[in-house]
Amino acid sequence: MEKALKQFLQAGNMTVANLLLQNYRQLGMNEQELVLFLELSSSIQAGDSFPAIDQIASYMYCDSNQLYQLLHRLFEKKLLEIKSVTDENGKSHDVYQFDLMYEKLFWLLRQKDQQTQQQILVVDQSEIFQAIEKEFGRTLSPIEMETIEQWFSEDHYQPELILLALREAVLSQAYSLKYIDRVLLSWEKKNIKTAAQVQQLKEQQRERRLQRQQTNFSQRAAAAKKPKIPLQRWAHSDNPAGGDD
């Protein structure tokens, strides 16, 4: 038991990206090619960057010809390449590299992310259409739907921002996309892009209104405290200053 444990520890471990295990099929790899990748990666991580084919074949219980075929398929799929490198002693030797495979994997993940974002965008657009139609109490025209689509595709407005602009239109009883568009443009000029920034703007506007109200109240209160000085009606005075009897 101790000997087996010692052998286990001496063999070491290897690191494999979970994303590769989850997406190797999308890269065009089958199970045999994946195992070959794992065997080569294990040797590379152990310090042998160009392991012998016969050794890898023995690990995989196949002959060398079969292994060469697997390698050739990985080369054709642009998942594996052999590069010549120069070590610190100036000697040149070949190494297996999977950089192309990882680049392809990252490209695949970006494609998936873009597809997900596109699906989210479609859902967001649908929600905006429904919300506006509900507040307007009618079905949107094709031109209006095109305008809303441009808010997303050209202006890149966030859905939450469009909903807040819709709220402003409803509060003002202005049931038109032109009003909503003016609100969005005014926010854009102020570099407002999120709901939190809109809330901050409203708080600032509320504070300014309160300050103006307080200033007006103070001015009226100060005016009310001033003594009223009656004006003498000189034209009807019995004895105006400087006049004769």
TrEMBL record:
<dbReference type="InterPro" id="IPR006343">
    <property type="entry name" value="DnaB/C_C"/>
</dbReference>
<dbReference type="InterPro" id="IPR053843">
    <property type="entry name" value="DnaD_N"/>
</dbReference>
<feature type="domain" description="DnaD N-terminal">
    <location>
        <begin position="17"/>
        <end position="115"/>
    </location>
</feature>
<feature type="region of interest" description="Disordered">
    <location>
        <begin position="204"/>
        <end position="245"/>
    </location>
</feature>
<protein>
    <submittedName>
        <fullName>DNA replication protein DnaD</fullName>
    </submittedName>
</protein>
<dbReference type="Pfam" id="PF21984">
    <property type="entry name" value="DnaD_N"/>
</dbReference>
<comment type="similarity">
    <text>Belongs to the DnaB/DnaD family.</text>
</comment>
<dbReference type="InterPro" id="IPR036388">
    <property type="entry name" value="WH-like_DNA-bd_sf"/>
</dbReference>
<dbReference type="Pfam" id="PF07261">
    <property type="entry name" value="DnaB_2"/>
</dbReference>
<feature type="domain" description="DnaB/C C-terminal">
    <location>
        <begin position="129"/>
        <end position="200"/>
    </location>
</feature>
<dbReference type="InterPro" id="IPR034829">
    <property type="entry name" value="DnaD-like_sf"/>
</dbReference>
<dbReference type="InterPro" id="IPR053162">
    <property type="entry name" value="DnaD"/>
</dbReference>
